[in-house]
Amino acid sequence: MLQGKELAQLFPSTPGLKRLHHAQELCNATLVAGEKRFSCNRALLASLSPYFHAVFTSGFKESRDGEVLLQGVDPSILQSLLTYLYTGELAPSPETAEDLFTAASRLQLQPALELINRYLKERLSVENCLRLYMLAHDHNSATLLHATLRYLSLHFDSLLEHKDFPCLDLGALSSILSSDRLAVASEMDVYRALRCWVMAEPAERLPALRVLLQDLRFPLLTPAEAAEVLAEVVTFDPQLELQWEDVDGAGRLQASGGLRQGMYQERIVCIKVPRLRDIISGNGDMDCYMECMDPGTGMRATLPPLELVALPGCTTLGHKLYLSGGKFSDGSYSRALHEYDALADRWTPLPAMSTARSVHMLLTCKRKLFALSGWNESGPLASAESFDTAQQTWSPMASLPLILRFSAPAPFRNKLYLIGGDADSEEVAYQGILVYDIPSDTWTQVPLEFSLYGAAALAMDAGVCVIGGFFSGKVLHPYPNRRFSQLLPCTQQCFLMQEAGVVSKGITVPPLPLPLAFAGATHWQGTVYVIGGVCASRTHDAIYHWKPGEEAWTQYPENLTGPGGILRRVLKCVTLKVAGPELKALLQETSASRVAVGLSDQGGDGPGPLPPSP
């Protein structure tokens, strides 16, 4: 049962309402469920439920008499909901939660629905996911529908054998099959799923085949797979005619509407750059090196190179990697934005930032890029701007309330967090967090009880994981002629920061094996990876990983550079989605292939020509 602050956020119950409920006072309405009658206050019901507001203001008999018959509602369920409305106390259980959801949905009791939705989402499983998805679909519950669709998309293969899968109705199944989130390695898996559903009741469902085939992304089938599907579906429906069109690899991807989630494979990309002083002096290796790594297999590959710049911004969005700004060897600064498409394996220049900047932070949130702070010819910058990846345009945003460099930046729940950093104007480590609220375009400063500089940060489900850096629990003051980083000890400490800058006491992150600052950090398949960094003023080349629930970090068998490699400092590590080898080869074909891109409702002499054999 929810209590305290959490409960108050869902329902503003008062002691006065509890007293009225127990004393049955000021009751001017009666709800009837089964053979039981419940006295209650119509003003309270109408204020919390659009359903009851309509009933009691309609002018019909229920409004005049104040008696409402609720057919099909279990009396014990109604009693629980009324108790919640008066007292704020509701204790869903595995036996009652779905009935509570159904009744609260029907009666439009939104406060109760929020609590029940939370309960159901926390208990999603392979066993109940399909049933809850159908329940959410039937009651048009966006919150539960989103949660269940995400869960079953990730567990799609295991759900095909579940007894509830053939029970899905056509609309629910179509919503699933059209989802980008499906964790399938091949589009043939989607076809096999729809075939399984149709053949469960072929007499009734074969007419729905044409509808479901609209959800199949034919361009993502190999020629052999497309031929197999074509040969089979025309045996089900001889009047079905598939339309074919010549497209190359890029056209195939565009015609399909994109890959499914399971068609991507996650890779860690390390952006490794020479030191700025080496760029300026021309000494040493001068390549800006981008390495793609699969921690599961140890496979490594380099990305196509870009023009050398020092300290650019870096972030990813799906299968695309973005680099912005940086400093050239001649001392000038860059405004450029480049996009690497992992499917096409090439870099593309995009519209440039309005302001040249280096040593800046580049974050991704809600399909937008955010370039924050930094440095250029004019000195330190407080300005910021955002890039809409759909519209391909930059827009100004509220400037930072103070200039920060080397913060630990991370997006979390529609906000951007800049934790600690170099408060350049004060020449002292910033003892706080800058929080940017994206919808309102406003910054908020949240004080911290410690100073932090050069840490790494990444968003997780429960909060922002902050890793290493230069750290002090004391209040620091400016010191003339000395960099404050010389005054702060490097730390092994890691912690989870929740919303509003609160350090979590319930979730602990183990300390690193050694003190590290300026490390790259990302997560891959639920595991956090820390790569490179600086230890005792020297570049470090070890890789460590930790999975929530483990008691310590584990060192990866290989180091950052690999055998015979050249040690470079890691600028940033990010996780990038790439296509599997077979699918990537299909999408990168330069010669035209015949693929199905649509369906015709016109009967004819049979299907179009088969796609060429591989």
From TrEMBL:
* Ranges of residues in domain BTB: 27-94
Sorted UniProt keywords: Kelch repeat, Repeat
Q: Does the keyword Repeat apply?
A: yes
Superkingdom of origin: Eukaryota
Would the keyword Repeat turn up in this protein's UniProt record?
yes
Cite the InterPro entries for this sequence: BACK (IPR011705), BTB-kelch_protein (IPR017096), BTB/POZ_dom (IPR000210), Kelch-typ_b-propeller (IPR015915), Kelch_1 (IPR006652), SKP1/BTB/POZ_sf (IPR011333)
Q: Which PANTHER family match?
A: KELCH PROTEIN, SI:DKEY-260J18.2 PROTEIN
State the name under which the record lists this protein: Kelch-like protein 18
**Native species of this protein?**
Eublepharis macularius (Leopard gecko)
- The UniProt gene name for this protein comes to LOC129343407
